[in-house]
Amino acid sequence: MTPDPSRDDSAGEPAERRREAPQGLRSLSVTGLLILASFYTLYFARSFFLPIILAFLLSLLLAPIVRGLKRLHLPEPVGAGIVILALLATLGFGLYQLSGPAAEWMNRAPQSLRKVETRLRDLRRQAQSLGRATDQVANMARVGTATARPTAVAVQSPSLLERILTQATDVIASTVVFLVLLFFLLASGDRFLRKLIRVLPRLRDPQRAADIAQQLQRDISTYLSTVTMINLGLGAAVAGAMALLGVPNPLLWGLLVTVTNFVPYLGAGVCYAVFTVLGFLTFDTLARSLLPVGAFLVLNVTEAYLVTPMVLGRRLTLNPVVVFLGLTFWGWLWGIAGAILAVPIMVVFKIFCDHLEPLAPIGEFLGE
Questions:
Q1: Domain-embedded: residue 78
Q2: pLDDT of residue 127
Q3: Measured distance CA(235)–CA(300) in Å, rounded
Q4: Exposed, middle or buried: residue 156 (CB in 10 Å: 0-12, 13-18, 19+)?
Q5: Euclidean distance between CA atoms 159 and 9, whole angstroms
Q6: Rounded Cα distance, 40 and 291, in Å
Q7: Dihedral pair phi/psi, residue 347, rounded to 5°
Q8: How many distinct structural domains can be found in the chain?
Q9: Separation of alpha carbons 288 and 294, rounded Å
Q10: Does residue 258 fall inside a structural domain?
Q11: Taking the complete model, does pTM exceed 0.85, yes or no?
């Protein structure tokens, strides 16, 4: 009987398959443990990673200014120092100008809440009715229970002063790390990014690594500066609308919109709630109370569905599912700061993937 050449009945093949299966399983297990360890490290070391990520993103945003100063024959370290000093001066002036209105609104918070409660009296009555029904059920459940008084256990917690000092120390340390790292990143130009790209096995060619680094820096700087300008424009438009409507402290609300607009969906939801309450606190009639949230609705829809798609295009647009998952993940990982940085982090990663051939499939998955 002639053996079939298409079949391979060698005794070694089943053994090889049996050896490959455990190796593949071990590799998958090691990869899963590595991912879990990375999440664990990012979560518990967020005070270390946050200033680093923020400094890296801000360096990409401010790098064109440093390059412009270099063309004016200013060395990169000098240009980096000038940019950082100008940034600190701008932030300090803005905080000084807005600290008064913010403190005023905080002091008026109890009265404002009482006013909102009065305006929404019907909802309060319904809540009181529900509360009385809940108390009756709780009283019925306590019938027949033992009257022995439980032993009180006192848990000593840190004092308010200790908590404030600890948080202030952490904030100061993170700020120092952020500023020093930002200076070095700006002063080094694109050398850090070029070295980072040359680490990849397929990009050992110095010239190719330099070209990719420059293109990456241009694309990321363009995206970050464009998004920042769009958010500043939206904030300025909201501040102008609030001033025309007669809402107090319009600059404060414009700044709120500028910052929260970095967080898709969630930031707009927060602003809708804030402007709804603000309208009830500012005006007496129902029609005028809805003007602030109505003005923000018009401006937000115009920015989200007309301005941003037209300016950014589809190349730098993320998949909505990816945006939602990214906001959920980074918000859980780093809180409010993570939610604000989630989209810039994902877009920067997408641009990296688009320019690096080994990571191109990941960039295609992240895109819309």
A1: yes
A2: 53
A3: 10
A4: exposed
A5: 76
A6: 46
A7: -70, -40
A8: 1
A9: 10
A10: no
A11: no
- For residue range 23-73, what is the model confidence (pLDDT) as tens digits? 656 677 777 788 788 888 888 888 888 888 888 888 888 888 888 888 888
Rounded Cα gap, residues 225 and 63, in angstroms: 10
**Terminal CA-CA length for the chain:** 59
Q: Which range of residues forms the domain containing residue 82?
A: 45-117+165-189
Are the C-beta atoms of 250 and 243 separated by less than 8 Å?
yes
Q: In which residue ranges of the chain is pLDDT below 70?
A: 1-26, 102, 104-167, 196-212, 313-316
Residue 267 lies in a domain: no
Query: Is residue 208, in this structure, part of any structural domain at all?
Result: no
| Token output for 320 | 């909505």
In sequence order, which residues have a C-beta less than 8 Å from that of residue 193 and are 6 or more positions away?
213, 216, 217
d(CA 237, CA 244): 11
Q: Which amino acid is at 86?
A: A
* Residues paired with 367 in a beta bridge: 318
